């Protein structure tokens, strides 16, 4: 099956009602046939429904589809993108371990890695995702993972996938790629050798900004890596399941442990209703992401020629600092771009004049959004700190929607007048 067909049909077995749209199983629990059946389910001898905290039939359809689209062996949906990143990290680390993260990451992933995890005895080191050779020095025997983004939010950096994967594989360290911005249609990190893909499904996957959700996807090749001494929790008996050893019992040890141990105990489960929204979002993702990218590229080209614009950042714009890796690894540039005006005042005035773009700190809605980081997300920083963070005070970020391109350009023209 090809991707567009997977997105519409894969992983849904119709029940007695034969509903075309995947039903929403809004239920906490499920009835067992008898006590023997219940005992087999609890002993993991048979697969089946137990309790929605660790699995739900609606959610399962979404998990199968995103796993197939990312070329994984299995997936787990959770309550948010940050939840997915937390589960993927905490599945691999113990107190005393360290992780390596890209300098160009989503803000929440940075604070999670450098502040919150520190309180549990896990430390973080930075690397430049376009200079993977830095990893050679950074990796030690306590290093459990390398986390980076396929297109960084908000920096738009495209990583050197092959360089990162090569060194990580030589050292036996797990790679995690946040593929929120590129989507599985822009790049399939698992095909490039990455071990785990995570998503904030709140963005392009749900598509219309209607739900917070996230997911993790495991590559088939991860199992071999997890068999090493570096990852004892996958090779030693889990006392909470009568001595179960994940790499012996499962072909998908990473997702199995995330579901059976982490989701069971942390409990940040996705609502079946939100899973249903994600299923509906996936059905049109391939059409939307192309439209987002086409519109964004046209706007980037328009802005590049405008006399009031100092600089445009978009990975698929010729001459952009990410152009080379973008052309090598990505099918298209995505819907997010940024550009620089002369001053804080000019940026503020631009935002004020827009009619179609809404001032919102979110990305990847089907409706166009605009942010001015210096007055919102980065407001606490001084002029020097803004510069160091790569956020000039006149920087504008656009999340380009799928409206008519002529209307969008007219709106931007008026904003720049
Ligand atoms: C939004 C976002 C997240 C966080 O996702 P939530 O669903 O808001 O928790 C993580 N990574 C990236 C790249 C994002 O854009």
What does this structure look like?
With 417 residues, the chain is α/β, with parallel strands linked by helices. The chain has 2 domains: 3-273, Aspartate Aminotransferase, domain 2, CATH 3.40.640.10; 286-416, Aspartate Aminotransferase, domain 1, CATH 3.90.1150.10. 38% of the residues lie in helices and 13% in strands. It has 16 helices and 12 strands. The strands form 2 sheets. The chain has a 7-stranded mixed sheet with strand order 1-7-6-5-4-2-3, with helices on both faces. A 5-stranded mixed sheet has the order 8-9-12-11-10. Strand 5, helix 8 (183-186) and strand 6 form a beta-alpha-beta unit. The longest helix has 34 residues, at 272-305. The chain starts with a helix and ends with a helix. It binds pyridoxal-5'-phosphate. The site of pyridoxal-5'-phosphate has 17 residues, from helix 4 and helix 5.
């Amino acid at each position: 099956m090809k991707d567009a067909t997977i997105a519409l049909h894969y992983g849904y077995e119709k029940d007695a009602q034969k509903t075309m749209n995947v039903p929403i199983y809004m239920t906490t629990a499920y009835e067992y046939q008898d006590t023997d059946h219940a005992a087999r389910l609890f002993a993991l001898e048979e697969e089946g429904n137990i309790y929605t905290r660790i699995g739900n039939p609606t959610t399962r359809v979404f998990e199968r589809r995103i796993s197939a689209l990312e070329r994984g062996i299995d997936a787990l949906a959770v309550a948010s993108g940050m939840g997915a990143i937390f589960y993927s990290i905490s599945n691999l680390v113990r107190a005393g371990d360290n992780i390596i993260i890209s300098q160009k990451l989503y803000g929440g992933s940075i604070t999670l890695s450098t502040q919150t995890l520190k309180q549990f005895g896990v430390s973080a080191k930075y690397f430049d995702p376009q200079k993977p050779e830095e990893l050679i020095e950074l990796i030690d025997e306590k290093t459990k993972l390398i986390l980076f983004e396929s297109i960084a939010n908000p920096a738009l950096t495209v990583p050197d996938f092959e360089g990162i994967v090569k060194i990580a594989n030589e050292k036996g360290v797990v790679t995690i790629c946040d593929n929120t911005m590129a989507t599985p249609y822009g790049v399939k990190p698992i095909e490039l050798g990455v071990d785990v893909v995570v998503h904030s499904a709140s963005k392009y996957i749900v598509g219309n900004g209607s739900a917070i959700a996230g997911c993790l996807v495991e590559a088939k090749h991860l199992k071999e890596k997890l068999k090493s001494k570096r990852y004892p929790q996958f090779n030693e008996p889990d006392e909470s399941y009568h001595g179960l050893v994940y790499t012996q019992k499962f072909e998908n040890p990473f997702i199995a442990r995330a579901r059976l141990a982490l989701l069971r105990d942390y409990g940040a489960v996705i609502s079946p209703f939100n899973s249903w929204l994600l299923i509906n979002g996936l059905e049109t993702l391939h059409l939307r992401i192309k439209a987002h990218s086409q519109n964004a590229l046209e706007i980037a080209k328009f802005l590049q020629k405008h006399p009031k614009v100092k600089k445009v950042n978009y990975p698929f714009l010729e001459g952009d600092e990410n152009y080379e890796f973008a052309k090598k690894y990505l099918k298209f540039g995505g819907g997010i771009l940024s550009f620089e005006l002369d001053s804080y005042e000019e940026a503020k005035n631009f935002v004020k004049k827009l009619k179609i773009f809404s001032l919102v700190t979110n990305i990847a809605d089907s409706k166009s959004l605009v942010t001015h980081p210096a007055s919102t997300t980065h407001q606490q920083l001084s002029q020097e700190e803004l510069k160091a963070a790569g956020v000039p005070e006149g920087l504008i970020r656009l999340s380009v929607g799928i409206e008519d391109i002529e209307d969008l350009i007219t709106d931007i023209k008026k904003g720049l007048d």
